[in-house]
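Standup notes
- DV: blocked on the single-chain target, sequence here:
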Amino acid sequence: MQRPFPAYQGDDPYVFICYARSDAAQVYPELVWLNEQGCNIWYDEGISPGSDWTEALASSIERANAFIFFGSPASAVSKHCVAEIAYAIDNDIPIIAIYLEETLLSGGMKLRLNTHQAILMYQLDRGQYESTLMRGLSPMLASGVSAPPAPARAQAKKPTRKSVAVVPFSNRSRDSSSEEIGDAIADDLITALSRFEELDLAGRVASFALKGEPNLDYRMIGNRLGVRYVVSGTIQKSGDRIRIHVQLDEVESGHNVWSSRFDRTLDDIFELQDDIVSKVIDALLHSGELELGQLVGERFLIDEVWKVGSGGLGDVYKALDLLKKNQGSAQPYVALRLLNEAFSASNDALRLLRDSMGRVSEIAHRNIMATYLVEKDAARVFLVFELLEGQPLDNYLQSLQSETLGHDKAMEIIDGITRGLARAHSGNIVHGDIKPGNIFYTSDSTPKLFDFSLTEAASAALPDNQWAFTPAYASCERCETGIASFADDVYATAVVAYELLSGQHPFHRTPSLKAHNQGMKAKRIDVLSDRQWQTLQQALAFDPERRLPSIAAFREGILP
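- DV (later): unblocked, structure below
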């Protein structure tokens, strides 16, 4: 198997990796992820041809700041791994054992690793695993760096327009668990932001090395890490309530770009983390914003500075259509989505957009947002669609806070969503990313689907398909193949319906593949009849062969 990158050979702190070659398919992706977090990695790729193999290993272990053992049935009986662990212990190198699967250790191995941190990767979801690992690893690496005033990263380049650091959130409670939640949110932010090529992100190790230093403000942090923007926050906890304040500041000007306060209960902590990550990403990617009076495409005038909304694929503005105004239209205003720069550089993305939006415009329906055109001016690709009063459904649901939506209203929304989707499917149009954020809830209580097939174009324009679909709502086959389908729309609609009816995600926002592997089952919603519950269960089936065959069948079974 091809090795992912060269082993680190410098003088800065690094991690020594101990693993069995037969586990490479599982281990190499973890090495790539660690490397993306700013960790220097040494593994057996670093032994030069002609070198004394044992001397090279010994030297690399002696100089390491941390030692990670990837435990498995294969590595537990590997004489090389046993020897490397013993040598690391003899040289007082801190060890973290990451178990890829349930592993039976020999008595000697148990004795050696008994006093060192163990992470049961196979029992944790991805977010828990990453947070736990980096909380254990960062102090080991930071101790070798001592949070230098001007790290090599900062010396190598001036802060760029989109350079950013995410620092650990400050705990204002006496409860140590609040600090863990703050660290986990910072971890999630770093992981999410690392996927954007337009962002120059400070590594996690460098950012977390500043943790606990007194009297550090965002300007000092920015100068230390060589970034223009700093994301920071505070966290307070009282009983089962938690309050988090997050802010994005520009270092040079001292300008607060964005800030927000989040008040939630601990039972929806994962949704809270996702919400914070989404809003910080939106704030950071707002460079190149349109201004009052700016003309787009020689036709659309930005009439007001406020935004209708925003999202990972681009910001949405209120604009005056000068052509409609000149024609005396009673409704001259439109919504204009300014897509991310990546779309301008991709002819395939533009072609897919024009094709899919053209087909959507032909199926006028009360529950589908009208799309007018897809255009490209000298700078950016933009979409034009009807301007509505209201808000995305996810914002509406969040505004309810502890109030319940109510069974009747939930069924009305499900009725509208499925009507619109059934019309689209009858025109051979797949949505591809059904979720509350892609359903607009108007001021007259009408749900309208939007962003049809936009993720197909996004997969052609954006790196790593990071916006191609939303894992919490995507079916198993979508997660495996990346291909949108009618069956995937049925699954995603069922997840949204479950949320509307119960107030909770059926699998606690766990992606379908992982939920399937863990044998997770949705808890019954008591207010549903046996027929309705059976319908919802069949629509939520992980196996597409067992899922309801169409959105029409779902409508027939779920509605009263």
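- Follow-up: The first helix runs from residue 24 to 36.
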